[in-house]
Amino acid sequence: MTLPSYLKDKRYFILLYIALMMFISLMLLINEDQRLAIHNIIYTNVVCFSLVCIYVIGGYYYHKKFFKDLSKSLYADGKVIFQDLPDSKTNAQKLYLQQLKELNRAYTKQMQKLYDEKQDHQDFILSWIHEVKLPIATSYLIMEKSDGKSIDDIVDKLEDEMQKIDSYVEQALYYSRIDAFSKDYFIEEVSLNRIIKENVKKYAKLFIHKHIRFTIDEEEVSVQTDSKWLSFIVDQILVNALKYTMEDGQISCSYEEDEKEKRMVILDSGVGISQADLSRVFEKGFTSSVVRSHTKSTGMGLYLAKQMTQKLDHDISIQSKEGEYTKVVLHFPKFYTYLDFED
C-alpha cells in the first residue's frame, strides 16, 4: 500500500475536511475586525491542517504495517498460505481477515474436489487400461493358437473379444460425457421391452456360449426417458449379470407398477453380493469381495448407472443374496400432468 493510494482511499474524509474549514473560515470572516478575523482564519487552518496531516500520515503507517505483515504471511516462500496472519487492530481489518479465510476455505474445498476428480479419473483410466488389455491379449492368443482350427471358430472367438473391447470403450465414452449430460439428452416415450431386447440381442452369443436362459415379460411397458442413456444403463446391468452368472444360469426381466412408479426388474442367478458390500455397490470404483474372487473389474458400471438414473430423475436399487441371486430394480416415477387430474 502506497501513500497516494491511501490518500485516494481517504478522499471523502479530505473533502469533508476542506468543506468544514471553508465553513469555519466563512464564519470567522463575519467578525467586524477584519485583521483579527484573517489572523484567526490562518491560525485555525494551520492548526487543523497540521492535526489532519498527523492523523492521515499516522493512519497510513498504522495500516501499512498491517497490510505488509499480511502480504508476508500470504506469500511466504512464494506460496499462498494462511498461517501466522497478523492480528486485526480494527473492525475493518477483522472483516478482511474473515473474508480471506472464507475465500481460502472455499478455494481449498474446490481444489480438493478437482484433485479428487482428477485422481478418480486417473484411477479409472488405469483400471480401464488393465481391463481392456485382457481381451486384446486373449485375441492375440487366439490367433497364435489358430493352427488346425476352422476360420469360423477363430472369427467367432475374436468377435467375442471385440465385443468386450467395444463394451469397455463405450463405458469410457459415457464416463467422459456424464458431466455434460444436460447437453446430450432427449426425453420421449420409450418402450422398455425394446431397450432390453436390443441389449440382450447384443450379447446373444454370450448367452448361448454360457447356456444362460433369458426370460422376459411380453407386456408392453413405456416410460418417459432418454432411450440412449437408458440403453447404456440397462447394458451395464446386463453386462454385470452375464459376467457373474455361471453357466446354465438364468436371467429374467419383469415389470411392476403402482400408483407412484413403474419398475423394471432384472434378476440373475449369479454369485450374488455379500450383505456387507451391498450398501457400497454404487460407489465409484467399488467391487464386491465376491466379485473380486471371480474376476477383475473397474467397478464403474453400477456407479455410472446410478449417476445416470439420478440425472434422468429415475432411481436404481439392488437386492442380493450371496451365492443365490442379484436383483436390480430401475424405478421410473410417474409424472402427472394437468390433464391427468382433469380426467
TrEMBL record:
It catalyses: ATP + protein L-histidine = ADP + protein N-phospho-L-histidine. GO terms for biological process: cellular response to phosphate starvation. Its main location: membrane. The keyword Nucleotide-binding applies. One of its GO terms (molecular function) is phosphorelay sensor kinase activity. Its EC number is 2.7.13.3. InterPro entries: BphY/WalK/GraS-like (IPR050351), HATPase_C_sf (IPR036890), HATPase_dom (IPR003594), His_kinase_dom (IPR005467). This is histidine kinase.
